[in-house]
């Protein structure tokens, strides 16, 4: 398991330490003024590229002039949403099979194409 506070999860995995994780937990700060569909695709693309389950928790409510969107989601390595929240504070629960990570990585061996020695 790896934890990150970044929509750019691949930046956290470039050091190679998180690439073997089967589950990434990502805290997010997506706001209501941003397009929801783009935000959800951002998570799904990272799942596809890394063949990993991502559990993304987002804030709800307002802080000053900022309205947070909620929409927390758990996405499995096959890019299926295992559980989704709406824009209200709530607990979402998802049954995830961490063995899917190895199977997904075998079907789509993208991680083996990385060149971490080139990352600066």
Distinct helical segment count: 3
What best-fitting shape do the alpha-carbon axes yield? globular
**How much helicity do the residues have?**
10-25%
Distance N to C terminus: 24 Å
Strand coverage percent: 25-35%
User: What is the strand tally?
Assistant: 7
Description:
This protein has 120 residues and is α/β, with parallel strands linked by helices. The chain has helices spanning 9-13, 36-50, 100-107; strands at residues 2-4, 23-28, 53-58, 60-63, 66-69, 73-75, 81-84. Strand 6 and strand 7 (81-84) form a beta hairpin. The radius of gyration is 15 Å and the shape is globular. The relative contact order is 0.18. The model has no long low-confidence stretch (mean pLDDT 82).
Condensed summary:
This protein is an alpha/beta fold. It contains three helices and seven strands, in the order βαβαβββββα. A five-stranded mixed β-sheet has the order 1-2-3-6-7, with helices on one face.
SSE map:
Blueprint: E1 2-4, H1 9-13, E2 23-28, H2 36-50, E3 53-58, E4 60-63, E5 66-69, E6 73-75, E7 81-84, H3 100-107
Parallel strand pairs: 1-2, 2-3
Antiparallel strand pairs: 3-6, 4-5, 6-7
For the structure shown, list the relevant keywords.
single chain; 120 residues; alpha/beta; five-stranded mixed beta sheet; two-stranded antiparallel sheet; 3 helices; 7 strands; 23% helix
């Amino acid at each position: 398991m790896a934890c990150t506070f970044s929509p750019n999860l691949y930046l956290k995995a470039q050091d190679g330490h998180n690439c073997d994780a089967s589950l990434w937990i990502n805290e997010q700060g997506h706001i209501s003024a941003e397009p929801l569909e783009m935000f959800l695709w951002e998570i799904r693309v990272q799942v596809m590229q890394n063949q990993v389950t991502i559990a993304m928790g987002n804030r709800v409510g307002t802080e000053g002039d900022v309205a947070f969107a909620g929409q927390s989601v758990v996405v499995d390595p096959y890019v299926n949403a295992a559980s989704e929240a709406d824009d209200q504070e709530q607990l979402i629960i998802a049954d995830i099979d961490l063995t899917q990570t190895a199977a997904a990585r075998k079907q789509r061996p993208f991680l083996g194409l990385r060149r971490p020695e080139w990352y600066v």
